[in-house]
Amino acid sequence: MPSPSEPGATPRHTAPSEHKVRTLDPRSLRGLAHPLRMRLFRALRESGPATASQLAVRLDESSGATSYHLRQLAAYGFVEDAPEHGKGRERWWRATSQGIRLEPDRLNLADPVQRGAVDVLMHEVADNHTEELSTWLGTRHEWPTAWQEAYDLSDYSYRLTPAQAVELRERAGELLESFRAYEAQNADAEDAAPYRVHLHGFPRDTSPRHPDSTEEPS
């Protein structure tokens, strides 16, 4: 795809990764395709360096579990020590990149192990998107009016070939990436906030009797 591409918000304290996006290969895919590891990786990307204990509280997990899976993430190169934050015996971790990219042509999806890892990864990303959107819908009344008018919840339908779908995805990605130019100038803007964009695109079967069909059966 390169999806799921999950860059996330770029906090000011993530200089080591410089919004680096890592393309997964079979080995790194296996290392990341675990729900808790993906949540840990996401938390470090979005909120900056933390200890296993801090992440355990944030994610409602045991510190033993977060410590173990952080070490696994480190073994596969997704996180690293952040010694400048450490005090005494505390071990701080930071993400080594600000996103991941999955490109199926680099994988052997006929291999059930790799296919299973891709399924775990994609469903975790989708679950996270659902959670983020639900959180916004449930709390939007707490935001200033300007932000309540600045969200989008839209869908579009086309009839495209696979090549045209790839073109749409890539052109949309180019437009979204162009908005990174605003991040530096908005670093100290009081009315700026992390703004999350989800981009989903997929084919559907709308033939009669299919669950997605909007036609009434005859």
UniProtKB/TrEMBL annotation:
Residues 27-105 form the HTH arsR-type domain. Residues 1-29, 199-218 are annotated as: Disordered. InterPro entries: ArsR-like_HTH (IPR011991), HTH_ArsR_DNA-bd_dom (IPR001845), HTH_MetalResp_TranReg (IPR051081), WH-like_DNA-bd_sf (IPR036388), WH_DNA-bd_sf (IPR036390). Keywords: DNA-binding, Transcription, Transcription regulation. It holds the Pfam family HTH_20. Residues 15-28, 202-218 have a biased composition (Basic and acidic residues). This is Helix-turn-helix transcriptional regulator.
